[in-house]
Specification:
Blueprint (H helix, E strand, L loop, with lengths): L7 E5 L1 H7 L4 H8 L3 H9 L8 H11 L3 H4 E5 L2
Antiparallel strand pairs: 1-2
Helix pairs in contact: 2-3
Amino acid sequence: MTLVMESCMLRWKLREVMARQNMTNRKLAEVVGIHETNISNMKRRDTMPRIDGETLEALCKALGCTPFDLLEYEPEQ
């Protein structure tokens, strides 16, 4: 018996959430406490970056959102 798992992708929506909040890279970096370059790198990604829970929590607090606002599950076709 062969088990076939459907591929999936977690789509990272930081760029969209920041745009809705009119949040700049610089401001978010200040609030979260990480370098502006890190925010820029995370913002350019379409797939979820490897971040720790503290960073995810800080992003959510700064943007007034939940992790579910930053992530979208999309099964690959």
